[in-house]
Amino acid sequence: MSIPKEYFEVVRETGKFAKREFGEHALDWDLNPDPSHITSLWIKSLGLDLPVLTIPEEFSGVGYGPVCQALVVDAMASRCPGVASVFVHHFAGLFPVQFANKDQQTELWGAATGKAGRGIAGVVFDHDGALSIKPSGNGFILNGTSSLTANAQYADWASVFTSDQKGNPICFVVDNRSPGVSLGPNPELPGLKINPFHSLVFKDVAVPAHAILCNPEKSAQLMEQTRDLLHVLTAATALGAARTAYEKALAYARERYQFGKMIIEHQEIRRMIGAMRMKLDAATANLYEYFEENPGPLSRADRKASLVKAFCTDAAFDIIVDAIQVHGGYGYMHEQGLEKLMRDAKVLQVLGGSNPQLLVEAME
Length: 364
Description:
Blueprint: H1 5-23, H2 26-31, H3 35-45, H4 66-77, H5 81-94, H6 102-112, E1 121-125, E2 131-136, E3 139-145, E4 157-163, E5 169-175, E6 181-183, E7 200-207, E8 212-214, H7 216-255, E9 257-258, E10 261-262, H8 267-293, H9 305-327, H10 338-350, H11 355-363
Parallel strand pairs: 1-4
Antiparallel strand pairs: 2-3, 3-7, 4-5, 5-8, 6-7, 9-10
Helix pairs in contact: 1-4, 4-5, 4-7, 5-7, 7-8, 7-9, 7-10, 8-9, 9-10, 9-11
């Protein structure tokens, strides 16, 4: 596919930013996660307009589409998939706002650009019906506990997809600073530790009518489109991690001397590295061919985004495991960074539904 030239400039600057601001700190942050790391990083990223990448120019954003978002999170994930995941879920949380009315867009996108003192967004999918809403005055009361959600610890507000009392889909925005909103316990997942997953607990949270983004008919379609965006950006995150693992394995094989020659000269090592490159290229092509078939945010292709996510995250995990194998025992040392990437990739495989589940759903 043809990628606009200005996207490459954004990616170059993102790569420099990632290397400078968190590339050298990712391993330490993995062992000692601290919310201040992300909040400080977020403020600095505003200097590159990264948080407002998807927001239209008329609302003081950049106005770039999903392809640019994927390239950006790929570049970030090459340094730390956990940091990239914060932007992935922020972009997914912003996506529904484009279908809201002008007043809602001004308020919410203004929040993201910092004009209202808020910044990071999130997204909640209530697939299990754990949330309930009850009409109250001009709005409704929200109760329940969401499933595990990224950005829960950082997001100032979230786009929530659930059903009303009649079972109709509904999409609305919740201010996470509202009375009655709290964090559930941290399950301490093995990967993406810089962005710990929590449930959001809602206890008699008042949601005004103007927080509803669209009608039930549009909400159902919007939920699928938002999930699709989350899937493909997760796939891009996995590719960034896999590319780093491949490059580490190739560099190590070219410098490690064993049994009288560099290990890259051993047939089995060459085979493994060749297979890693093949999987990486295939997964990259799979992702960007999806974008080529989906030129706009409302488009749908025969090939589902969930399958792209499953293919790319599975390929990434295999590549990272093979990179560890190339390094031998050194590959399991935290200082090498590969075992962190392996843990991160494993969590990416289960985001938005585990890969086996997504593959079964695609056949239905």
